[in-house]
Write a structure and sequence with these properties.
The protein has 20 helices and 18 strands. By secondary structure, the chain is of the alpha/beta class. The longest helix has 33 residues. The structure holds 4-O-methyl-alpha-D-glucopyranuronic acid (GCV). 4-O-methyl-alpha-D-glucopyranuronic acid (GCV) binds next to loops. This is Xylan alpha-1,2-glucuronidase. GO terms for molecular function: alpha-glucuronidase activity; xylan alpha-1,2-glucuronosidase activity.
């Protein structure tokens, strides 16, 4: 199927010309005003050697000619053979499929291991040109660190998106697929431009209708989506319902050790691959938050996953099995059960028991995407099991894309965490990339932050997180400052002043958010259900295992070996020791690991209660300067994006004040200890 390239923006549902800059995100391809630079590009890249006509080749040619025309003002000719100056793409068997080398040697050449590598190279070169990089001494040699670089959509077929903060689903409406090919294609372009190579397109909570995605009812539509993504080197995954043999197949059970169940899945996968021969595989949330799974039949997760793995193996498919398994019917009175322990307790004993095409997907922290959590102790501990680390782009607990929070600083900390499992230097980034244990599959996934909003992500500035996620999974050694400046150049233009203001707004934004919300790793304290806004006791007497245990003397969860839940012992020895002792525990996680008195003195010399007050006042000040910095951009960027972001930042400020006052008042009332600076804390 050929979709005409970048047609009038109005053909995208819900998008009109006034949304153009918002919609184009970082693929603006802004006209370059420097005549010298344009002339250089024109002379070096007059022509492009045409490729073999495959889907990806077509995407490459379209992207290249379109982008050069927009940035430079001329249309490079696509010719069978470049004679003079031009762009040549040469496939080299000895290179890995996604690798490339861009160089200027007898003209500008891209050496690539395969078509995906060539596509990534073209996007890289276009980025370089947009930033007016030097073309004479070009020498960019790259390959992705992580083999799997995935976005997980939590889209439902009724059009809603679980934890979606950017409009409705771009894939579905009213239990059908939408006619949204242009947007899908533009989405695929955005993803490919930052190296994402796999997408799951439905919620991990697979309800009745979505269970049929793997059947004749929807497979033609799924194949349509796969066609679009394939042209951008992206493979498709579907989330499946573990109880499909019953829901779809009419069986009376879904016991993984029973032959009829295995036969159901074998047939289902045969059908899927018949429709989509390069289908990547399935994502499974089993025995988690009331979803069905092998526990119902007294089977282990290895037995459950391996049965699916066998059924999909003839097609070289993979089974991504999530480790977000915990007791969500906990009794708050029971102080021995600790949700943080759950993933490790469930999966560690199964290390080595999974088939080669099963990959365990582990959330970055042991709880659930809080503003601050330690790294999941399962990451690194599993040595004989394929692993994917899961992040969340959707800012479920980080302001739901109404607050501007740049997530890269958080992810960098996580990826650079030393798990210590193979001695010093066993970093999360090397476990995810497969460098440490050399597994058959590995990588990183993130819950997407996209919908059908005209700017994709609800908050225009949340685009940076998608961009940064792609760049970081491609190369985890990139730093957050460089990624931000790349993004801001591409998205808002190269004026230094704009970049400085965006850096001032975004670089500290994660810490700012942490300051006005949740102190010292305690987490939660949010409204139940929708998870937006402060509610300190919202989950305190609930069944979800998310407690802060604040009383009149102190707060925090005792997870030590001696007096607490023993969670600290799940880490490799050195980390376990550090976390177990409040004197060595990193202070930003102190209350995650320890129940501490309000008057405990931190290294800053402040007591915990004073720290709570101070950070909450500072957090609001931080948002005030975000607003002021953004206001300084008036007239420097287009009105639409300017006013959209300003509106959200103003909301963020009022919401930060709400957070500050509720938290400060709560802990003042609990502790009875006054702010030494006598600022306004409501009684
Ligand atoms: C898709 C959290 C979210 C749920 C989500 C779940 C998960 O609990 O609140 O909406 O469900 O994580 O990751 O499966």
């Amino acid at each position: 199927m050929t979709v005409s390239f970048y047609p009038d923006i109005k053909t995208v549902s819900g998008v009109n010309n006034s949304h153009a800059t918002s919609y184009r995100a970082w693929l603006q391809y802004t006209f370059i005003t420097s005549t010298t630079y344009r002339e250089q590009v024109m002379s070096l890249l007059k022509e492009m050697e045409c490729l073999n006509g495959s889907d990806i080749s077509e995407s490459i040619e379209q992207e290249w000619t379109f982008a050069i025309r927009k940035m430079i003002g001329f249309q490079p000719a696509v010719v069978p053979e470049v004679k003079g100056n031009g762009l040549r793409i040469v496939y080299v068997d000895s290179m890995e499929k996604e690798a490339f080398h861009i160089k200027n040697e007898d003209g500008i050449q891209i050496l690539a291991g395969g078509e995906a590598g060539a596509l990534y190279a073209v996007f890289t070169l276009l980025r370089h040109i947009q930033r007016q990089g030097d073309l004479h001494s070009l020498n960019m040699k790259e390959k992705p660190a992580n083999p799997l670089r995935i976005i997980n959509h939590w889209d439902n077929m009724d059009g809603s998106v679980e934890r979606g903060y950017a409009g409705e689903s771009m894939f579905y409406r009213d239990d059908s697929f939408r006619e949204n090919i242009v947007r899908w294609k533009d989405y695929a372009r955005l993803l490919a431009s930052v190296g994402i190579n796999a997408v799951s397109i439905n919620n991990v909570n697979v309800h009745k209708v979505e269970s049929y995605l793997i059947t004749e009812r929807y497979l033609k539509d799924v194949a349509r989506v796969a066609d679009i993504f394939r042209a951008y080197g992206i493979r498709l995954l579907l989330s499946i319902n573990y109880a499909s043999p019953m829901e779809v197949g009419g069986l009376t059970h879904a016991d993984p050790l029973e032959e009829d169940v295995a036969a159901f899945w074998k047939q289902a996968f045969d059908d899927v691959y018949q429709a989509i021969p390069d289908f990547l595989g399935v994502v499974v949330k089993a025995d988690s938050e009331n979803r069905p799974g092998p526990f119902t039949y007294g089977r282990t997760h290895a037995e459950g996953a391996n049965m699916l793995a066998d059924a999909i193996a003839p097609h070289n498919g993979i089974v991504i099995w999530r480790c977000f398994v915990y007791d969500c019917h906990q009794d708050w009175r029971d102080r021995t059960t600790d949700r943080a322990r759950a993933a490790y307790d469930h999966f560690m004993p199964l290390d080595g028991a999974f088939k080669d095409n099963v990959i365990l997907q582990i959330k970055n922290g042991p709880m659930d995407f809080q503003v601050r959590e330690p790294v999941s102790p399962l990451i690194g501990a599993l040595k004989q099991t394929n692993v994917i680390v899961e992040f969340q782009l959707a800012q479920e607990y980080l302001g739901q894309q109404r607050h501007a929070v740049y997530l890269l600083p958080q992810w960098k900390e996580i990826l650079n965490f030393d798990t210590g499992h193979e001695g010093e230097g066993t970093f999360v980034k090397d476990i995810a990339s497969g460098k440490t244990y050399n597994p058959t599959h590995s990588g990183i996934a993130a819950v997407g932050n996209l919908g059908d909003d005209y700017n994709w992500t609800g908050h225009t500035l949340a685009q940076v997180n998608l961009y940064g996620y792609g760049r970081l999974t491609w190369d985890p050694t990139l730093n957050e400052d460089d990624i931000l400046s790349e993004w801001s150049d591409l998205t808002f233009g190269q004026e230094e002043h704009i970049q400085q203001l965006l850096e001032a707004i975004l670089l500290p934004s994660w810490l700012t958010y942490e300051r006005y919300t949740s102190p010292l790793g305690i987490g939660w304290m949010i409204n139940p259900g929708h998870h937006y806004g402060p509610n300190i006791d919202g989950y305190e007497y609930d069944a979800w295992g998310t407690y802060h245990f604040a009383d009149r003397n102190g707060l925090g969860v005792d997870r030590t070996v001696e007096t607490g839940t023993g969670y600290t012992s799940q880490y490799a020895e050195q980390n376990a020791k550090i976390y177990n002792d409040p004197n060595t525990c990193p202070e930003e996680l102190l209350l995650f690991f320890h129940h501490m008195p309000y008057n405990y003195e931190l290294t800053s010399g402040k007591t915990i209660i004073q720290h709570i007050y101070d950070t909450h006042f500072e957090g609001v000040k931080g948002v005030e300067s975000m607003v002021a910095n953004w206001e300084a951009l008036e007239g420097k960027i287009d009105d639409k994006r300017f006013s959209d972001v300003l509106e959200r930042l103003k909301h963020q400020l009022s919401h930060a004040i709400e957070w500050r006052d509720i938290i400060n008042t709560y802990f003042y009332r609990k502790s009875g200890i006054k702010d030494i600076h006598q600022r306004k804390i409501y009684e």
